[in-house]
Amino acid sequence: MAQAMLKLAHPGQPGQLSVPQTKVLAVKGLNKHFQAQNNVLNDINFDLYAGEFVAVIGRSGAGKSTLLHILNGSLPASGGEILHYPPDGAILDIARLSPRQMRRWRAQCGMIYQDFCLVPRLDVLTNVLLGRLSQTSTLKSLFKIFDDKDRARAIELLQWLNMLPHALQRAEHLSGGQMQRVAICRALMQNPKIMLADEPVASLDPKNTRRIMDALQKVAENNISVVINLHSVELVKEYCTRVIGIAQGRIVYDGQPDGLDEQVLQILYGDEIAQVH
Ligand SMILES: Nc1ncnc2c1ncn2[C@@H]1O[C@H](COP(=O)(O)OP(=O)(O)OP(=O)(O)O)[C@@H](O)[C@H]1O
What we know:
Protein name: Phosphonate ABC transporter ATP-binding protein
Subcellular location: Cell inner membrane
Largest sheet: 6 strands, mixed
Distance between the termini: 25 Å
Order of helices and strands: EEEHEEHEHHHHEHEHEEH
Radius of gyration: 19 Å
Domain ABC transporter: 25-273
Organism: Acerihabitans arboris
Structural class: alpha/beta
Strand order of the largest sheet: 6-7-8-3-9-10
Keywords: ATP-binding, Cell membrane, Membrane, Nucleotide-binding, Translocase, Transport
Helix content: 25-40%
Bound molecules: adenosine-5'-triphosphate
């Protein structure tokens, strides 16, 4: 069923002075089909600006994770364009990169996951340093040789997210919230322009959820665009600057979190609405 877009706030529109202006990404007519399932994403269009904290919401199976994985280059799109606007260079279409360009793009685009994806037996500092692997020679990465500059950066990031006291602890001994903060530091080691977060608080208790949301807010305040899949409308309203609502693979809402009223939520969640309050 095709649903009309309810509301479209154009970030960067004249008159919205508090909205960031530097365009980082333009998604145009993006589609995704899997062999087993057609129309997982349908004609997705949006621009992403530096420093935005964007929530992607919608019921289970709406296509939120698929969208993030296509943005990050780990899944190919079936059609459409994803244009990246580097601060100092030619516009790149993420859907049409050579393997070498794709490696570079994935370094620009940090990603964190619900299950953290740390190496449990390695210490926290080394886990963070692993974020540099894509920019390190194969031989150096094989022997986990990192230079002083990388170590200093990793320590700085751990301090920034209050994880420095745990630097020499094995990752497997941390709490979920601590592991996620380490995962954020690891993603930041690549100096990304965009941070994608696929349900990063889904397995966390309320206290750790807030810590991670606070951390991601700090990331966005540093002019990195954060795009996060979330199931809690309360968190979206508290933390995010913009929300993209997806239903059945189509964007049905793109605007301010304040605009998520009962009518919009009903379209987004249908009979699952009770679970998001
Ligand atoms: N590799 C795949 N092959 C076939 N179908 C897939 C694949 N990955 C995802 N899908 C389908 O695409 C649709 C969207 O999945 P996606 O994981 O993006 O949804 P989601 O909104 O992130 O859901 P959730 O909130 O439950 O994680 C689902 O119907 C899913 O079954």
